[in-house]
User: Which sequence fits this backbone?
């Protein structure tokens, strides 16, 4: 398996991005500077910053100092501003040889940071005791300083009561004027850098995506008010949309359309650098390098192959990837794990690049889950075929409802679902074969799996299996899947599943068969935000969230749909169920690639839970589309049910209206 932490080893072809950040850091004419490293969650922002930081720490310029600050580590801290300032001062104290003047400045600055933290505690003390007034005036009015110090120390982490009491008793002139405190801190910090012989201080701030809005704003305010001095550079990694949201919470009186979040961010970040998503060839190289890295080859061999991969990416725009010829030039006897990994990468890359929006973290998590299941099976002395497992996991990631239904069928049919056999034979009759390796990236922009090339079938056509033996569930599923482009192309991927006993594969996937516990974990932050807004009380917010869902990638769409489906199944309130089902239809109207999923979902829930509005919505959603036949079959099933007479009548009326139109 592969580590999910940031790395300074470039597997993503970030050479140009590292150079861009370093060019700003080295250009003194641009200082002080703030650089924003923007990208989606999991896009590689932390790794990019780690690469830049390593280039500074391993470089020849010892007068440039790099400091790393993780905002998320101080999420529950009493004051993020003082946490950032204190971290920078601690790093300077530990990494630089300080003279007498520098030590005096450092002590003075640390003293001011402590006062800021205690000031926060005093504010909480005033609030708890209904005391009003500014910091200096309020402290002067405290009658029992010892007891107040104990109370304040309880409000502030890592501060002792005796230290609080000592600071309270000191002359209050420093704290009387907030503007003076800010100016003095700013000047003293600038002097400290000069006395410490730091020509350029580079502060890398990471994981703001995970922080609450208050922490984000505190950190930004600390940079601008206290730390933005001539020899400083701040490199901030964050999701641009999440930062805008954090800013909008600071100005609640303004609507998002006013652009206050955008304007604030543009003033704070002078040089935005965006981390682009991986394309098909970049994803393929990334997966191949991961397999090489985990194969146990020598470090120097891996570095050679990594260099070749990056050089091929830089020297050509023809999407050249690592191949067997490249690796055989470096490794005499290529391990079987690498050969299998390369073959798998060529199959997976087009789908993962499009479906996961070229997200390295989600790609790695897919591969880690794949490896984990292989290892779990091995521990039970069961051998799973890597490519078969990967194919089933694609269905699990991108079509969870279909995956669950297939799991049910394989249980009742000894691990060999008839519907797979029928669909694969039908695909073979149309002459489709799996050949994703030579597809261009333009064919992936729709977010669907690659359209596989049709080749003339030179064999005698085989007879398709009789479908008369299929039950109602299988018939509906056959029609829904037969109309779904994603499913049809997925079926064409090698290897074929006909005749394969799928029971061991689903056994090691059973955590997601009963209830999809991992869907929220797989969602991007934007998808999680949309889900929260879906389930909120405001219809205006909900409609806006549905409109924004058009920008989500395929795995987010699937995860959102599955989360809503799970909430429907697990809720006993009829009104809430109807509300969720309405929301699911609204969502699928925007993302029509999920039509087959909602048909499968409606077939799996008891007819007593289905409101009559589902008849109208299903008809409107599928009319004139390939999925219409599957919807008509479902209406036929509903029209004959004995448990929900209202639904049965509505379905029968819909069937009659369609018949009369013909």
Assistant:
């Amino acid at each position: 398996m592969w580590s999910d932490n940031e790395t300074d080893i470039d597997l993503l072809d970030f050479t140009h991005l590292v150079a861009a950040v370093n060019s700003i850091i080295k250009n003194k004419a641009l200082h002080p500077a703030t650089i924003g490293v923007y990208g989606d969650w999991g896009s590689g922002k932390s790794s990019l910053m780690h690469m830049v930081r390593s280039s500074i720490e391993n470089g020849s310029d010892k007068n440039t100092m790099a400091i790393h600050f993780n905002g998320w580590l101080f999420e529950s801290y009493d004051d993020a501003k003082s946490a950032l300032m204190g971290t920078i001062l601690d790093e300077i104290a530990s990494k630089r040889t300080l003279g007498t003047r520098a030590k005096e400045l450092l002590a003075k600055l640390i003293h001011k940071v402590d006062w800021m933290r205690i000031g926060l505690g005093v504010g909480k003390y005033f609030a708890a005791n209904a005391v009003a007034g500014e910091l200096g005036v309020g402290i002067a009015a405290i009658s029992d300083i010892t007891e107040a110090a104990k109370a304040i120390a309880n409000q502030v982490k890592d501060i002792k009561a005796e230290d609080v009491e000592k600071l309270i008793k000191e002359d209050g002139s420093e704290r009387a004027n907030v503007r003076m405190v800010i100016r003095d801190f700013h000047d003293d910090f600038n002097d400290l850098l000069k006395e410490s012989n730091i020509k350029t201080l580079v502060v890398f701030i990471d994981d703001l995506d995970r922080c609450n809005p208050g922490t984000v704003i505190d950190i930004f305010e600390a940079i601008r008010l206290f730390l933005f001095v001539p020899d400083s550079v701040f490199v901030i990694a964050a999701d641009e949309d999440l930062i805008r949201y954090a800013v909008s919470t600071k100005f609640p009186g303004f609507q998002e359309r006013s652009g206050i979040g955008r304007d604030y961010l543009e003033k704070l970040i002078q040089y935005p650098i965006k981390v682009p998503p991986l394309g098909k060839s970049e994803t393929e190289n990334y997966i191949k390098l991961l397999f090489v890295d985990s194969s146990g080859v020598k470090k120097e061999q891996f570095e050679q192959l990594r260099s070749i991969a990056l050089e091929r990416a830089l020297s050509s725009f023809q999407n050249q990837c690592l191949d067997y010829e490249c690796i055989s030039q470096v490794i005499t006897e290529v391990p079987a794990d690498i050969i299998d990994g390369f073959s798998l990468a060529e199959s997976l890359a087009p789908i993962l690049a499009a479906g996961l929006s070229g997200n390295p973290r989600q790609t790695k998590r897919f591969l880690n889950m794949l490896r984990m299941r292989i290892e779990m099976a091995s521990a039970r002395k069961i051998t799973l075929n890597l490519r078969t497992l990967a194919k089933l996991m694609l269905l699990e990631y991108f079509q969870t409802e279909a995956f669950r239904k297939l799991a049910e069928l394989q249980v009742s049919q000894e691990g060999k679902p008839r519907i797979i056999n029928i669909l694969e034979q039908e695909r073979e009759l149309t002459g489709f074969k799996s050949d994703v390796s030579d597809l261009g990236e333009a064919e992936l922009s729709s977010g669907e799996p690659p359209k596989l090339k049709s080749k003339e079938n030179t064999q005698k056509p085989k007879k398709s299996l009789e479908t008369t033996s299929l039950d109602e569930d299988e018939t509906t599923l056959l029609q829904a899947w037969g109309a779904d482009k994603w499913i049809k192309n997925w079926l064409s991927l090698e290897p074929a599943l006909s005749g394969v006993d799928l029971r061991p594969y689903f056994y090691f996937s059973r955590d997601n068969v009963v209830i999809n516990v991992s869907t929220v974990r797989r969602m991007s932050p934007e998808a999680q935000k949309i889900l929260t807004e879906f389930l909120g009380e405001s219809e205006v917010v909900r409609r806006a969230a549905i409109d924004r869902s058009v920008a989500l990638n395929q795995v987010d769409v699937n995860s959102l749909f599955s989360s809503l489906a799970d909430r429907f199944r697990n809720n006993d309130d009829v009104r809430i169920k109807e509300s969720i089902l309405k929301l699911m239809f609204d969502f699928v109207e925007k993302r029509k690639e999920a039509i087959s999923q909602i048909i499968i979902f409606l077939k799996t829930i008891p007819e007593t839970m289905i409101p009559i509005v589902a008849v109208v919505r299903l008809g409107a959603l599928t009319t004139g589309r390939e999925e219409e036949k599957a919807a008509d079959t479902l209406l036929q099933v509903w029209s004959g049910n004995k448990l929900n007479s209202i639904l049965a009548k509505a379905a029968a009326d819909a069937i009659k209206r369609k018949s009369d139109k013909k």
Remarks:
- Residues 20-79+199-276 form a domain with the Rossmann fold fold (CATH 3.40.50.300).
- The first strand starts at residue 33 and ends at 38.
- Residues 534 and 583 are 8 Å apart (CA to CA).
